[in-house]
Amino acid sequence: MGMFYRTGVGLVAAALILSMAVPAQAVGKDFLMRSKFHSALMFGLGGILVKGAVDAKKEANDAYDLYKQAGTSALAREFYDNSKRHDTRAAVLGVAGGATILFAVHLFLKEEEGGLPPPKMDRGIVNIKGVALDIKGDVFQRKMQVQIKKGF
């Protein structure tokens, strides 16, 4: 089961990463670009992470029970270290799974947007009290210019 479980987790993670590799300006009309689809992928990934956290916590509890019953100090140390490692894994997976599920709910409830508005390039990078700071570059001449513009 371990190999199939890891393969499933890998496939879900790969599908999520590949479906999110979209330019920022792309308008989501395709099924793979919709936030509801991303929400379903994130919810599935969050469920897998939470299941991993529950399994790690069970393994940590089993190792701690073996630690309490250990006869030698070497075995006790080994079981305690296993318990500590599985507890840490359970905590990390639990937080990651919870955050992923919350993000999935956010994506599911989010409104579909029509795209980003075009930037206002005539104002410059910074505009303070009518004075604008702009940066211009010329690739062929290999130089950059900082321009200060004052509007009257």
Q: Gist?
A:
With 152 residues, the chain is of the alpha+beta class.
How many separate domains? 2
Strand content: 5-15%
Rg (CA only): 26 Å
The parts where pLDDT drops under 50 for at least 5 residues are 22-26
Mean pLDDT figure: 78
Question: What is the oligomeric state here?
Answer: single chain
DSSP, total strands? 3
Question: Per the principal axes of the C-alpha atoms, what is the gross shape?
Answer: elongated
Main-sheet strand order equals: 1-2-3
Helix run count: 3
How many angstroms separate the termini?
Answer: 72 Å
Structural class: alpha+beta
Share in helix: 55-70%
What is the H-and-E element order?
HHHEEE
Q: Which sheet architecture does the biggest sheet show?
A: 3 strands, antiparallel
Protein described:
This protein is of the alpha+beta class. It has two domains: 2-109, no CATH class; 121-150, no CATH class. It has helices at residues 2-20, 35-69, 73-109, and strands at 126-128, 131-138, 143-150. The longest helix is centred in the middle third of the chain and has 37 residues, at 73-109. The termini are far apart. Residues 22-26 have low confidence and may be disordered.
